[in-house]
Specification:
The protein contains 15 helices and 13 strands. The chain has helices at about 25-35, 60-70, 85-95, 105-120, 135-150, 160-170, 195-200, 220-230, 250-260, 275-280, 295-305, 315-320, 335-345, 345-365, 365-380, and strands at about 15-20, 45-50, 75, 100-105, 125-130, 155, 175-180, 210-215, 240-245, 265-270, 285, 310, 325-330. Strands 3-2-1-4-5-6-7 form a 7-stranded parallel sheet, with helices on both faces. Helix 1 links the parallel strand 1 and strand 2. Helix 1 crosses helix 15 (about 365-380), helix 3 crosses helix 4 (about 105-120) and helix 11 packs across helix 14 (about 345-365). The N and C termini lie far apart (about 50 Å).
């Protein structure tokens, strides 16, 4: 007697996710978080990055984290910044893996997504995370990026200001979806004891510590932070500062510290691989940016009970609803210094602030809910309900 063959399950749709990064910034963290929390019974995922073999000055933190989490990364060989052969490589990968949807992050990958959509009709979701302005070349890439979104099946943004920006550049409002970042406390599990880091950086545990975390770039406002630190130091005895991150502004910031007698009190850590260790060292996180999307460091500090003072930019006002005392106008170092001093001098204010922040994170920035919403966008595209 011949037994009937069991029915095989239909193949799952495949999503190719493309990001150009070597470090673990906000977009990279968001991708790894999504892959942990998404329902893999509904979709398969192919994570793609770029192989810049022979280029100097690039770290491999992104690939290291992927390996640590058991995630295979497909790499496109890149000869220079905008390489036309990337389109051919990506198309071959799409055909070989039966890709149904392409998802891209930031300008280089979004330009690739645009070309794949226009040349081959591949369904495409483009993510906008915010913009920087390091130089004229980056400004040109930003303009190209903003132009591309109008051709995406869906353009995903993290904040209302980004939504308005894309709409002003021609993207149809019905194709723009706001999907805020989320935070998973497990991503911030400490790996190093605080005392070890204090000894490494000569941080006095008896003195108050404030910090900024992120890329050292003009729009991030670290110079305003230093000016505010100098002013707040007149009111708060023994104040110390950590500047965590790396970037083009490093030399200017260090020179400012030397010229103003602050070199002993401001510690530059450079890029760190596990930022969760550093939140346990600080009394207050400061976000002095002129421009932001939705800063992950804001959500991380709120999740870990670290009070935050931030400029009211990007989605910060949306996150800190009802917490006006935590926000100041961009570029006003006197107001920033006053707010820093107030928080450090008032334990009750710090406690009220962190209690509110914890409730906001639990209610609105849940990583599982974010993953479910993104998967629903895949379903929407496959059903052609755009």
């Amino acid at each position: 007697m011949t037994m009937p063959k069991p029915k095989s399950s239909p193949p799952k749709p495949n999503v190719m996710i493309v990001i150009a990064t070597d470090i673990i910034g906000g977009p990279g963290k968001g991708l790894f978080q999504f892959l942990r929390f998404s329902d893999h019974r509904r979709f398969d995922y192919l994570l793609c990055n770029y192989d810049r073999a022979g280029w100097t000055g690039y770290r491999n933190d992104f690939l290291d984290m992927a390996r640590d989490q058991g995630i295979q990364v497909h790499r496109f060989y890149q000869r220079f910044t905008i390489d036309p052969l990337l389109v051919l490589q990506a198309y071959r990968t799409i055909k070989a893996n039966g890709i149904n949807i392409v998802q891209t992050h930031s300008y280089k990958s979004n330009i690739l997504g645009f070309l794949l959509k226009r040349m081959f009709g591949i369904p495409w979701i483009a993510f906008a995370h915010g913009y920087t302005g390091e130089n004229k070349k980056v400004a040109l890439y930003n303009r190209l990026d903003l132009w591309c979104y109008q051709y995406a099946d869906l353009a995903v943004v993290v904040s209302d200001p980004l939504k308005r920006l894309l709409q002003s550049k021609g993207t149809h409002p019905q194709r723009i979806i706001k999907l805020p970042n989320a935070v998973d406390r497990r991503e911030l599990t400490p790996q190093t004891e605080p005392q070890v880091l204090r000894e490494k950086w000569s941080i006095d545990a008896e003195r108050p510590v404030i910090a900024v975390i992120g890329r050292l770039s003009p729009e991030k406002g670290q110079m305003v932070f230093l000016q505010a630190f100098q002013e707040a130091g007149k009111r708060i005895e023994g104040l110390q500062a950590l500047i965590i991150g790396d970037g083009q502004e490093l030399e200017n910031l260090q020179q400012f510290c030397r010229e103003n007698g602050m070199a002993e009190d401001v510690i530059f850590t450079g890029h760190v691989t596990n930022v969760g260790d550093y939140y346990r060292l600080i009394d207050l996180l400061v976000i002095p940016s002129y421009s932001e999307g939705l800063p992950n460091v804001l959500l991380e500090a709120m999740a870990l009970g670290v009070p935050v003072v931030s400029t009211k930019v990007g989605a910060v006002g949306e996150v800190l609803q009802g917490m006006e005392e935590n926000m100041v106008t961009p570029g006003d170092h006197y107001a920033l210094a006053e707010r820093i001093s107030t928080f450090l001098a008032d334990p009750d204010l710090k406690q009220r602030s962190t209690t509110k922040a914890g409730k906001i994170i639990t209610r609105r920035y849940n990583p599982k809910m974010r993953a479910e919403r993104l998967v629903s966008l895949y379903d929407r595209i496959l059903r052609r309900q755009i």
